[in-house]
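Data availability (excerpt). The following record was deposited with the supplementary files.
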Amino acid sequence: MTTKSLIFSSLLCQQIYRQKLVENLSLDSEGRPFRIMVFRGSPKSRRTSIRFVDEMRQEEAGAIIDNDSKQTRYRRIPKGERRVLDAPGLRNDYYENIMSWGKNNIVAVALGPELYLWNSEDQSVHMLLQTRGDNDLPTSVTWSEDARTLAVGYMCSTLQLWDAESSKLIRNIQGHRGRIATTAWNGHVLTSGSRDKSIINHDVRVGNSVASCIKKHTGEVCGLKWSTEGDRLASGGNENLLYIWEASKMSSSKFLHRLNDHCAAVKALAWCPYQHNVLASGGGLSDGCIKIWNTQKGICIKSIDTKAQICGLEWNRHHKEILSGHGYSTGEDQNKLCLWRYPSMTKVGELGNHRSRIINLCQSPDGVTVISAAADETLRFWDIFGPPTDGNSMVSDLQGLLTLRTSRIR
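Predicted structure:
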């Protein structure tokens, strides 16, 4: 056999061998091809997808842990008041608004014919004014936004402005024909509501201060509150109506909304500090409801029946909560303070050492302390709006008692 023949024979054998090898590797014992599962994607992309899955699992675990920690974080609700001031002469009148806490940390409160200034920093007391006769009693007290001026409304329908630093009368303002039960500041505009059923906007910069006069209420105007932005005014009346006004259209007496859901006088009003268009309102004894309003649409988005007269409302600026002060009741909340979680309006807790109904509430400049003025002639200071605390239990009854101090405001 020649050399060429040997080479050809060797190549043929190799070809036959390769063919048999392929058949053995790709066919099963019955001669059918193997079914092979193929990964579509490079190993690099596969590693990336696994990393993303791991990150998602870590995020979910972190969210669960964070949610659990939030659920176990309790609010520090005091069991007792931090301070009590005796307030002899404080009138038992639901419609009046006789207390205000200014940014200067001074509490102004009317006690019968006298009006006192109590300094919360050094606890000093100063009598600002004293009137003569039952027809000349102060019936509303409100600090201006900069706490330089104190507005005082009277039973005799007079409205006065007092300089806070010098304790001197700046001016007398006329316009109403009945007692002025409520006042509210909006920059240089002072708004007053009266038993004569009218609302007057006074521009205190000018001599003839009446900027506009509105006569839409058919009962005494007992609640006024400007929004934080100053573009809307809420007014409540003894005829159970709540009006929402736009600042730019008040001169035309055209209201934005007329809301008639309450069944009793609407005195307690409070604008939400973290939602521009949300307002809380509270009704009198025959109503007893806290209503949360969307003032843009004019609809009630939440209503809670407290079965008690609502005399004041204060939003918590540190937590999403609102505090209500109560008077007469058909239930268990008579003369109490109730704290509600927003927006669910579930009750967080309640406080109450007053022996008679609460008349007014006001809040400290730092948003931590609330004062309740009641017909038992006391002012009680509650540190109820403080920051959250970690732990598994509420404050003990003893803690509130240890910080309790009682003194007279005059």
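Summary of structural features: The mean pLDDT is 85.
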